[in-house]
Write a structure and sequence with these properties.
mainly alpha, Arc Repressor Mutant, subunit A, Rna Polymerase Sigma Factor, Chain: A
């Protein structure tokens, strides 16, 4: 069963009983299945790649995507459009990734070999995950602490603005710029340590 089927296998515009999360009982929410399915189809790859970029271990990626879209289903009615859908989704992705890393521990995530980063869910094409450059990127992201990593991913990889990042993470704009500068410095140093630049 695909992620869309898992999330939208109930009648359209009906109360939907969603799969239980590890932390609680089944949730009964009103889901606009058409809107949810559209969001899933349009943003599944965005969610998948950013969960990976934020340190979710390979073996937990499918469940993490599912968990993220469960949160989307629960909160879709609360989305007021004050931010872009991507920044709203990224906030959910960030919280899901933090929870998974907390549960699995950073050490376990770092021990996972990066040379077997697999393709995104079927039907999606993401050459970034398959390339040597992507492997290097994921190694470099591991060199950053969480605060710098999330700002770098949002700014450099997802092309979000400093005000969007600040709003999403609850930071001041100067803090975003400071963390981004420190992330770039750390990544440059890590590149020299790896030996890929002179």
């Amino acid at each position: 069963m695909t992620g869309v089927q898992r999330l939208t296998s109930t009648p359209r515009s009906a109360d939907a009983e969603l799969a239980p999360s590890a932390s609680g009982p089944r949730l009964r929410v009103r889901v606009d299945a058409t809107a949810l399915e559209g969001l899933y189809r349009e943003h599944n790859q965005f969610v998948w790649r950013n969960l990976l970029r934020l340190g979710v271990p390979q073996h937990a990626l499918d469940d993490a995507v599912h968990d993220a879209f469960i949160v989307v289903a629960e909160r879709l009615g609360e989305f007021e459009g004050r931010s872009s859908i991507k920044t709203w989704l990224f906030a959910i992705v960030y919280n899901v990734a933090r929870g998974i890393r907390r549960d699995h521990g950073r050490a376990a995530a770092r021990q996972e070999p990066l040379d077997d980063v697999r393709e995104p869910p079927s039907g999606l094409s993401n050459p970034e995950v398959l390339s040597d450059a992507a492997q290097l990127l994921h190694r470099l992201l591991e060199a950053l602490d969480e605060e710098k990593r999330v700002v770098f991913v949002m700014a450099e990889l997802e092309q979000m603005t400093a005000p969007e990042i600040a709003q999403t993470l609850g930071l001041k704009v100067p803090t975003v710029y400071s963390r981004l500068r420190l992330a770039r410095e750390r990544l440059e140093k890590a590149l020299h340590e790896i030996g890929d630049v002179p």
